[in-house]
Specification:
- There is one protein chain.
- The chain is about 20% helix and about 20% strand.
- The strands form three sheets. Strands 1-2-11-12-13-14 form a six-stranded antiparallel sheet, with no helix packed on it.
- The N terminus is likely disordered.
- With about 290 residues, the protein is an alpha+beta fold.
- It has six helices and 14 strands.
- The protein folds into two domains: about 140 residues, no CATH class; about 70 residues.
- Strand 12 and strand 13 form a beta hairpin.
Amino acid sequence: MHFIRGKYSWVCLLSVMLASSGVLGTSAQAQSVEAEKEGLPLKPERKIEFTTDEGTWMSLDVSRDGKTILFELLGDLYTVPIAGGDAVGITSGMAFDSQARYSPDGEYITFVSDRGGSENVWIANVDGTDPKLQRFIPHDILDSLTKRRRWYRQEEYFYPKAAAAAAKIVRAGGRVCIGGHGEFQGISVHWDMWALSSGMTNYEVLRAATLHGAEAIGHAQDLGSIEVGKLADLIVLTGNPLDDIRNTYAIKYVMKNGELFNGDTLDQIWPQQKTLQRMWWWDEKP
């Protein structure tokens, strides 16, 4: 694993994954194929639209900064400025969502929902958005994968034990690699790295994501480290992932086959300047 300190802070080699959440060639991600389910799924028969400035039988909460009200109305969650204004929908669909509360740090909301088939506690982003992900993935796919997640107690998560076991393998001379399984192109690899950091050092995680991965697939001669003669596939970060593993997501530039791209937009910067072709979902509203 090699890092180069330079004008843009940190350069990290890219091996078996393109670590920008806006991965080159995301067109495959845009093709959503909905699997048919057995049984009798609930489907909406009609849609009713209305406008209102009042409601009853609601629960609400106030954001930690005191600027926003979070409330439920007819089974969906909304936020509205505490000083007044238009409400913004956080959840929608057939599920009945209620009893929403802000997390202590204000970054998430918890709520009760029957979207899993029975009532359970779920969590969601406060605004349900990530500008980079929204740019590269259609909102319907993005929403279904990230906006609402089932809540579990901390001891129910398995990944700390898996990370501890992986650390034992590495320190015994073995190899551990990072890999997403196609559930969420690009960002899932970051999640895998962050999860492993609960048992491995940040250096061990980064080596697993780069050099060890290249060795495992038989391409260490081309990928895995920054060396003369290897492919020019790398990313430039604005923060050091050795200090904070979540800095793997702080991507300023992406280099693919020697071509340099803006990490947020994937507009090409070098050897020629070229704007990324406009995606069809950019004009669609959630």
